[in-house]
Amino acid sequence: MKDLVSSCPIEDAMRMLSGRWPTLLLYYLQDGTKRFSDLRRDNPTVSHRMLSLELRKLEAAGIVTRTEHGDYPRHVDYALTAAGRQLVPLIDALGDWWEATAGERDGAVQKGEAA
Amino acid sequence: MKDLVSSCPIEDAMRMLSGRWPTLLLYYLQDGTKRFSDLRRDNPTVSHRMLSLELRKLEAAGIVTRTEHGDYPRHVDYALTAAGRQLVPLIDALGDWWEATAGERDGAVQKGEAA
Predict the structure, then answer these.
(1) Which of A67, A90, A95 sits opposite B94 (nearest CB)?
(2) Is the ipTM of this complex over 0.90?
(3) For residue B50, is it within any domain?
(4) Read out DSSP for chain A?
């Protein structure tokens, strides 16, 4: 679905990634295909409904694929798409930046408070 | 303020960047110091109160510095810290990824819908 209000790719990407779950789900899916029940086990504080909504959002953005298996017992798999795999190192870089700059960011805050 | 619940740097970074304004403010501040009134002009849809809250959040994270000038007329400047300037290319990379993968992400969604 095209968003007629915004055409800024950064804004669109951040909207898709906003909130707690998208990056956590990327993290848990980076090593390969997982079942819905695996993802619930990885994220014990997420509700069934919330996990389902978040996965659907990632699916709609083309980051995650959902595959239904009709065999018994019937189950559903989730995996990153090629685009989703390309996103993982970019998100890792944000985490690395957050850690690497922790000292200087704290310093900037204290300097600001003293001013 | 330390968050005792989470110690994942990616989650912390994404929490700080979530929402529409943090990345837009990074974008508008990347070329140098701006006054509050400049930032309001750059973002005409943001309210005074919201812009003030968002800038305070970035200030508390050590991404932005706020400088009060006591001269007449009194005004307040905002600028990126060193850590904030390091963040700009990482956010740009997310926007580039979003644009570069648009076709394949759309394709993955259509393939999923057809399955």
Answers:
(1) A90
(2) no
(3) yes
(4) ---SS---HHHHHHHHH-SSHHHHHHHHHTTS-EEHHHHHHH-TTS-HHHHHHHHHHHHHTTSEEEEEE-SSSPEEEEEE-HHHHHHHHHHHHHHHHHHHTHHHHHHHHHHHHH-
